[in-house]
Design a protein that fits this description.
There is one protein chain. The chain is of the alpha/beta class and 311 residues long. It has a single domain, classed as Ribonuclease Z/Hydroxyacylglutathione hydrolase-like (Metallo-beta-lactamase, Chain A), CATH 3.60.15.10. It is 18% helix and 22% strand. The protein has 9 helices and 14 strands. The strands form 2 sheets. The chain has a 7-stranded mixed beta sheet with strand order 6-5-4-3-2-1-14. A 7-stranded mixed beta sheet has the order 7-8-9-10-11-12-13. Helix 3 (92-95) links the parallel strand 4 and strand 5 (108-112). The structure holds zinc ion. The site of zinc ion (ZN) has 7 residues, from helix 1. Residues 16, 19, 21, 23-24, 280-281 line the site of zinc ion (ZN).
């Protein structure tokens, strides 16, 4: 399985257009040893021909255009190597890129029923995807299910990879109406994905509220984990003046502190552990900071745009 990170920042990217936090200001003025980052987007391929998107980032158009793997192949009847999109939630960061894919192209959209309902029933703008002929194909994932995925039309052959959905707790985005909230299952709100091909497993969980422990077995059995590195501390947004809410209140377990991700992360893992969805306020972005050093010393890698690896 080939995996590539096209974007590694949280919502807003790094730097964020309207942010004057110490990181964003210093990066703009060339005073920070750090990489600029686009919003979180990962792609993977079981055969290096057909590619699947994990999230559909607000930066998706520029990310797809910049990724040679996703260029339409020459001399081939298939116009795009993108076979489908897996949506972990209905957050703007995870779904806005679907609108970049509206150019009359059919592909699969994999999500829980709750996420599908929010997008299809409540947000009519996503109906632009139905203009393709045939239209985009929505595939419902159970919040705790396994789905065998085939690269060819022949579904009688063994699956090319298996997607296991892991409920992570968490809430639907603020924009979802009360009426829709009453109609959709709570556990459908935010899920992680284990993509399994043979012995290899990729676990993707860019938003980890920490209210459920179901992510831990997925981490323990993964060959590589791409996991929520949004905030270093619980009060990061209040200290930088970006919000009155804590990291936990907006659905992200912070990296540091009591009960933080570094403390809770299972010690028995053998696979690579990679932080992704890093907010522009996070001090780990500064490559000279003690926080950056601390996550490396704890055995984590920090995802960056263009990072790629094979499993
Ligand atoms: Zn900032």
């Amino acid at each position: 399985m080939r995996v590539k990170v096209l974007g590694s920042a949280a919502g807003g990217g790094f730097p964020q257009w309207n942010c004057q936090c110490p990181n964003c200001s210093a990066l703009r003025h060339g005073k920070l040893q750090a990489r600029a980052r686009t919003q979180t987007q990962v792609i993977f391929s079981p055969d290096s021909k057909v590619w699947f998107l994990l999230c559909a980032s607000p930066d998706l158009r520029q990310q797809v255009v910049a990724a040679r793997e996703l260029s339409p192949p020459e001399n081939n009847s298939s116009p795009s190597p993108i076979g489908g999109v897996f949506l972990p939630s209905a957050d703007v960061d995870s779904v806005m890129g679907l609108l970049h894919l509206r150019e009359f192209q059919s592909f699969f959209v994999f999500s829980t029923r709750g996420v599908q309902c929010v997008l299809q029933e409540e947000n009519r703008i996503f109906r632009v995807l139905e203009r393709a002929n045939p239209p985009v194909k929505w595939q419902t994932l159970s919040a705790k299910g396994r789905l065998g995925c085939h690269l060819s039309e022949d579904s009688s052959s063994p699956a090319d990879f298996i997607c296991t959905t892991v409920p992570l707790g968490g809430c639907y985005p603020d924009y979802v109406s009360e009426e829709t909230l009453r109609a959709v299952p709570r556990e459908d709100a935010s899920v992680g994905f284990v993509m399994e091909q043979g012995e290899k497993r990729l676990f993707f969980a860019p938003s980890l509220p920490g209210s459920s422990a179901m992510w831990k077995p997925a981490v323990e059995s993964a060959s590589a984990t791409l996991i929520d590195g949004t905030f270093w501390s619980d009060d990061e947004l209040t200290r930088t003046g970006r919000s009155k809410k804590t990291a936990r209140e907006i659905g992200h377990l912070p990296l540091s502190g009591a009960g933080g991700l570094l403390e809770q992360f299972p010690s028995q893992t053998k696979g690579r552990k990679i932080l992704i969805h890093i907010n522009n306020t996070n001090p780990i972005l500064d490559e000279k900071s003690p926080e950056h050093r601390a996550v490396l010393d704890a055995g984590f890698e920090i995802a960056y745009d263009g990072m790629e690896f094979d499993l």
